[in-house]
Amino acid sequence: MAAPRCGKHRAVSTEDASAKALAEAFLSQIESRETLVGIVGLGYVGLPLALTFLERGFRVLGFDVDPKKIEALEAGESYIKHLGTERIAAAAKDDRFGVTTDFARLAEPDAVLIAVPTPLTKQREPEMKYVVQTSEVLSKYLRKGQLAVLESTTYPSTTDELMRGILEEGSGLKCGVDFFLAYSPEREDPGNAKFDTATIPKVVGGVGPEATEIASKLYEAAIDMVVPVSSSRVAEATKLTENIFRAVNIALVNELKVIYDRMGIDVWEVLDAAATKPFGFMKFTPGPGLGGHCIPLDPFYLTWKAREYKTTTRFIELAGEVNISMPNYVIEKLKDALNDRERALKNAKVLIMGIAYKKDIDDPRESPSFELIELLLHHGAKVAFHDPHIPTIPKMRSWPKLPELTSVELTPENVKSYDVVLLSTDHSAVDYEALLEHAQLVVDTRGVYRQPHPKVVKA
């Protein structure tokens, strides 16, 4: 007589059993802190992540193509100012911390966390070569039981289609059976005194439930709060949504700035007043354009991907148009201010205050200051800059032809020698009262000077 059937049961396949065994082994390693965490890309995202895992008891092996970064870390020197020298020096003395340019060592880590650049092309399409190249190299050394996590901002399907395809083809291993793959978007905010890598909640989405589980458990061991989601695509979309939200709202206040200026209304006073409402309003501030590694770029990843689904992203594209137009708006305001003082922009001496993309950090990525410099030079102006955190203009992918400039001192005599000071980044270290006292003219894009002044033009 046949045994009674008590519901449907799916036979456990050999692949399922293998994946489960590998996942259990990985989870066991996390609990005992035996996991070796590999970090590919030791920049503004990868280096803080590496330090956080190290400080939470893990062994860490960092990878970077730049030998200067490796030399600096081995010497205990920090090339990212807000991280401080103490943390780097402590890491350099720790036997559990290693750094290398030898990507053949990718076989060593149990988890490989990838934080490489994802810029845009000149046509504002995703430039995926760094993700592709890293995936191709990793596929040569990928072994059973490894976890790979992409942290770079990208479009939905990058992890489960692009990366998965490269890793499987190059290694001969099967995702979800032999190795695990997940996406966890970086949420770094350089210079934020309230939140750091360990305290910013971490979204994690895997290619399959096992990948989500082990990636979540790994991050939980180093980060205070982890937010698992149902897939890598949801995690990818989460990152884009966060930054599209900011880009759209910044575009709104930038547009309001232009409108209110024509009405003779100070937009910063309006925003300060609106911010007193305890509900239903979130304050964003205008500026000379968008900067940083996320907000100027991320919205266009979704715009590009949406075309595949025959969908337009009108809201995002409109916000992009407004934000991209801001540097030109600032230059026009500066030009008009000089004309009012019977001075042409051509051959005018312009001092730009601030090269970093936001205040009190040394991060210049996608800073609108570079666009302002390029526009000023195009109009024949003579340009100099001051930034207390960035001594020289670095080589920038988006602005390869910028001159080699060094930050000038803010002596009274020096400030007086410029026809106009263009306030692009409002670093706290600057004495703005003294600057205004000695400047001939100040074009303020950040709302530093709230009271009307004959020397100040707001842009």
How many helices does DSSP assign? Answer: 14
Q: Specify the CATH class of the largest domain.
A: Alpha Beta
> What class, by secondary structure content?
alpha/beta
Report helical residue fraction: 40-55%
Number of strands: 13
Strand order of the largest sheet: 3-2-1-4-5-6-7-8
CATH fold topology of the largest domain:
Rossmann fold
Mean pLDDT: 93
Order of helices and strands: HEHEHHEEHEHEEHEHHHHEHEHEHEE
**In angstroms, what is the radius of gyration?**
25 Å
- Tell me, briefly, the overall form: elongated
Low-confidence stretches: 1-11
Strand content: 5-15%
Euclidean distance between termini CA atoms: 88 Å
Based on the structure given, which CATH architecture of the largest domain is correct?
A: 3-Layer(aba) Sandwich
Overall number of structural domains = 2
Largest sheet: 8 strands, mixed
Assigned CATH superfamily of the largest domain:
NAD(P)-binding Rossmann-like Domain
Which features characterize this protein?
2 domains, disordered N terminus, alpha/beta, 40% helix, 459 residues, single chain, Rossmann fold, eight-stranded mixed beta sheet, 12% strand, 14 helices
Question: What's this model, at a glance?
Answer:
The protein contains 14 helices and 13 strands. The protein has 459 residues and is of the alpha/beta class.
Description:
The N and C termini lie far apart (88 Å). By secondary structure, the chain is of the alpha/beta class. The chain has 14 helices and 13 strands. It folds into two domains: 217 residues, NAD(P)-binding Rossmann-like Domain (Rossmann fold, 3-Layer(aba) Sandwich); 194 residues, Rossmann fold (3-Layer(aba) Sandwich). The protein has an eight-stranded mixed beta sheet, with helices on both faces.
